[in-house]
Design goal:
The protein is an alpha/beta fold and 155 residues long. It contains four helices and ten strands. A hairpin with a 5-residue loop joins strand 9 and strand 10.
Length: 155
């Protein structure tokens, strides 16, 4: 009996808090499974780290845990990147997910012909490619969400 092997790949793109340091950006991760590329947070300096791993146009979605700059400073840079490159192999518009405690922030993720803002909330379930993501609000100075990420084939 053969068994399909699924590889989930997690790459830490940045891990500093507050500001980039020593050529390393702030909070950001690339989670990949079954050719689906999910960027979790998009901190300062992380677009360069992303480019060193995959073409940013290969992203399928971006998920922001909370609205501190060290978790989302490169969103605008990523939006410009998508705006300036017309050949997009995975999708024409990149969805960027943020929590619904600040819908103006989610709306700011809308960038003409490039990105679209979408919201999630505590207790919601988000299905992105091979991932099922469940959110729980955690204690932090601003609304912030922990994520439970499951690979759908193993549920």
């Amino acid at each position: 009996m053969s068994r399909e092997v699924i590889v989930i790949y997690l790459k830490v793109l940045g891990y500093y808090g507050g500001y980039p340091y020593n050529d390393v950006g702030t909070s950001s991760y690339l989670l990949t499974s079954n050719n689906y590329n999910l960027m979790i947070d998009c901190g300062s300096g992380d677009l360069i780290s992303l480019e060193n791993n995959i073409d940013p146009l290969m992203l399928d979605s971006v998920l922001i845990s909370h609205y501190h700059h060290d978790h989302m400073a490169d969103i605008g840079v990523l939006q410009y990147y998508w705006q300036l490159h017309n050949k997009r192999p995975n999708k024409s518009i990149l969805p960027i997910y943020g929590n619904d405690t600040d819908l103006n922030m989610v709306k700011s993720f809308n960038w003409p012909n490039s990105t679209v803002g979408k919201s999630y909330n505590a207790g919601s379930v988000l299905n992105l490619g091979p991932f099922e993501i469940i959110f729980k609000e955690v204690h932090h100075p601003v609304p912030s969400f922990a994520m439970r990420i499951l690979e759908k084939k193993y549920q």
